[in-house]
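Let us begin with a simple case.
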Amino acid sequence: MIRKKAFLITQSALCIVAAGLLAAGALCLYIDGAAKQAEGDLFYYMFTRERAGAKLLPVLPVIFCAFGMTLAGLILNIRDENADKPVRDEKLLRNLGNLQDKAVHQQATSGELYLRVAVMILAVCLIIAGILNGGLEDVLAKGAAICTECIGLG
């Protein structure tokens, strides 16, 4: 029980650290680009594949560790037994009635777990293929155009 809890806490912490590092990298990328544009280089394109890759590279080990722990947890079926149970909030129960008896929770079968893992791996492969194909640059260019033209930001 303690090992499961330690595993889940470590997995959650790795995911939170990875998200924080990615957000910090994106913020640094934006600040660097805004500083260049403020210096007078109006055609400085801050979101390129090379710059994004340079900010992503230090974060990759944390992302791979978090992804590996998630896969290991799925394969070894390490999960929190209380995750499917509703939280017993007395105030909520008084206001809404006893919803705990009405809730129906299903356990995922091993086939469903393998299907989820397969879909997750396929999604990651397609995201990587899109980045390598140049789709990241297109999406960022279109997003910047929408912000500056339609919404009026920038």
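The second case is a distinct protein. As before, the sequence precedes its structure tokens.
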Amino acid sequence: MTQERNVSVLIDEAKIAARNSEIAQEIAKTNPKGLLVVAILKGSFMFAADLMRALHHAGLMPQVEFMHLSSYRDATVSSGQVVILKDVESDVRDRDVLLIDDILESGRTIAFAKDLLAARGARVMTCCLLEKPGKRAVSIAADHVGFVIPDKFVVGYGMDVAHSYRQLPFIGVVE
């Protein structure tokens, strides 16, 4: 059980919803064919679900798959090593894949997933809800970014600390 912590709102529900709609419109303009959304679990699940609905409203009909990758485990700092806990089940060869992650920080997780899917023959577009630009350990930039944030540990909207706070409908900072 995690000790109670104070969480202040960094990005509220309305801003998240508006940005999801904008990102969906940006993606729709790329005219993807047979779009497969691959959400990196666990942190991106809320973002991926809301973005998929926004993609539907933008006229797209994406399918969805999940990868469960981890470099954090129960820590608040990346271990630096990405581990595959669950892989996609679909053949991604010759498909347009939208790879979704919650936060682009070191870049290791999304770079690992992007390289893996590309090696399997996918055309990969990346999308991250959040970006912390000063923390990059590998050279990667997301094709679509929801919000650029300061170097603070964030929770909510699917993101956690030791499996807590994922349910929050906003992005918050643990005080």
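The first strand starts at residue 7 and ends at 11. The two ends are 18 Å apart (CA to CA).
Keep these points in mind for the review questions at the end of the chapter.
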